[in-house]
Structures are given as structure tokens and as C-alpha cells.
Write a structure and sequence with these properties.
eight-stranded mixed sheet, single chain, 10 helices, 17% strand, alpha/beta, 276 residues
């Protein structure tokens, strides 16, 4: 008998989404692949890399390369793009990062260009700003869909696609496990919304408060969805010591996620053994 079909949902959480990578390592270590992945915000970015054929180890190595330090990141970015392509200034006081440029910098060129061509089916969750509702990208340009999903309001500018503007998928569905249920025997959800970082005598930046406030909303919405229709496995790495902008603490994220990685591995092994 073959093993259970496992659907994987990777939630939003800004830098905390780096903790998704050790969770993907569990699948590789067990020699299994999800039958479908749904990703929101940074979960869509990590999910796109994995669904596109990268191993979890390759994603880890790429993250460590890109985020080793600020100077190295700047050299990488400006070695591949112009500042005018990275920044969007629509009006005075309205400076954003270009979502599609960011997605292009983060994802390797070797990935398929379109969602429907990925080796693992991927559902990318964004929020249609004009219709005020969740939107699921199932086909079309991969980088455009990821850019839509990671578009943090006021920080990252999402694309205008087919006449609609998009913002972060977490605004409507921060841990999109409902989108893998129909295809799966076992639904696994990874929640990286975390909690606000303790100030520890340091004042929080305006950016940390803005993004952190949005993550509080994500957290509340995820709890409501989980209470209404819980997934089979729900893991939440302990990320309370990190802020939403701590991208350059990448190795610390991996260390902090180890306990939850072990937990997920045990729970998945039990599910697989139960149908063996």
C-alpha cells in the first residue's frame, strides 16, 4: 500500500517564514513529497522553491547565501538589478519595494516560469485588493503570483495583474490549509506568525510595529480557522525571540525551529506507519 497523500500549507510571517525550511527538510529526510502545497506570503516564496524541484537543503543553502549579512545581500541585489527596478515611488512619501523584483531575486532562474509547470502542484494565496477577497493563483507567471502573495501593505508593492491589484495573502488566509484538504489524506499546516518580540530595553521600530500588527491579525485569523476546521497536523515553531524583519538571523531561525522540526517528523512518521 502506498503512503498517505500529504497536503502541506505554509503560512505567512515575514522573516519568521525562514522556519519553513527545516519543516521541508522533514519531508526529504523521510523520503516523501507533499501531493500539493498551498503557500501564503513568505510561505508562497519558500513553497515555490520546493514545488519547483529544489531540495530543502538547497533552499537552506540559498537562504544562507543570500542572507549571510547585509553587505553581501546588497552586493547580490545590486549586482543583478538597478535600484530603480527595486524601488517604487508612486508619489511623495510612497516608497515601496517592488514585489516582482524581490521575487525574482529570491527565486533561482532554474525554476519553471509558470505555476502549472511546477513538479509539485502549488496554490499561491494572495488578496485581491479591488474585490476585497482571497485569490488563489493556480496558473500563470510564478514570480507574479509570489509577488502578489508577499505584498506587505505599505512595504512591498504587489503587481497589477489582469486588471486587479494584490496585497499579502495573509490578509485573507494566513495559514491556507483549507486549500490542500480536498487532495489530501493528511493535512499539515505550518504557522509562523509568531508573537511580538519582547522589547528587552530596546524600542521597536515603526516598521516592526507596522508589520507586527499585521502578524497579530494573521495569528487571530489562523486561530479562528483552525478552531472551525482543524488540520491533521498543526505546528507552530517557537519564534517569539525574532521580529518580522530579522532576515539576517537566518541560521538562528533554523536552530530555533529544530524542536518543531523533530515534532513534525515524529507526527508524520506515525501517520505513515498507520497506513503501511
Amino acid at each position: 500500500m502506498s503512503g498517505p497523500r500529504i497536503g502541506l500549507a505554509l503560512g505567512g510571517g515575514s522573516a519568521r517564514g525562514l522556519a519553513h525550511i527545516p519543516m521541508l527538510e522533514v519531508f526529504d529526510e523521510l523520503g516523501i513529497k507533499p501531493c500539493v502545497i498551498a503557500g501564503c506570503s513568505i510561505g508562497s516564496l519558500v513553497g515555490a522553491a520546493y514545488a519547483g524541484g529544489m531540495s530543502a537543503q538547497e533552499i537552506r543553502e540559498r537562504a544562507e547565501m543570500l542572507l549571510a549579512n547585509r553587505l553581501g545581500a546588497m552586493r547580490y541585489v545590486f549586482g543583478r538589478t538597478k535600484i530603480t527596478d527595486l524601488l517604487a515611488l508612486k508619489s511623495f512619501g510612497s516608497l515601496h519595494l517592488q514585489g516582482e523584483t524581490l521575487a525574482g531575486l529570491a527565486l533561482p532562474d532554474t525554476l519553471p516560469k509558470n505555476i502549472e509547470d511546477l513538479p509539485i502542484p502549488l496554490k499561491i494565496i494572495a488578496t485581491d485588493f479591488d474585490l476585497m477577497e482571497e485569490h488563489v493563483f493556480l496558473k500563470g507567471p510564478l514570480r507574479t503570483a509570489v509577488a502578489a502573495s508577499i505584498a506587505i501593505p505599505g512595504v512591498i508593492l504587489g503587481p497589477s495583474y489582469e486588471g486587479h491589484s494584490y496585497v499579502d495573502g495573509g490578509v485573507t488566509n494566513p495559514v491556507p490549509f483549507d486549500h490542500v484538504r480536498a487532495e489530501s489524506d493528511v493535512v499539515v499546516a505550518v504557522d509562523v506568525t509568531g508573537r511580538p518580540r519582547a522589547p528587552n530595553g530596546k524600542s521597536r521600530s515603526n516598521m516592526e510595529i507596522a508589520v507586527g500588527s499585521m502578524l497579530i491579525m494573521f495569528h487571530q485569523m489562523a486561530n479562528l480557522r483552525r478552531a472551525a476546521s482543524p488540520p491533521d497536523i498543526y505546528v507552530r515553531p517557537a519564534l517569539q525571540d525574532f521580529s518580522a524583519g530579522d532576515f539576517f538571523r537566518v541560521k538562528e531561525f533554523f536552530d530555533a525551529a529544530q524542536v518543531t522540526k523533530d515534532q513534525l517528523k515524529r507526527e508524520l512518521e506515525k501517520r505513515i506507519e498507520a497506513v503501511a
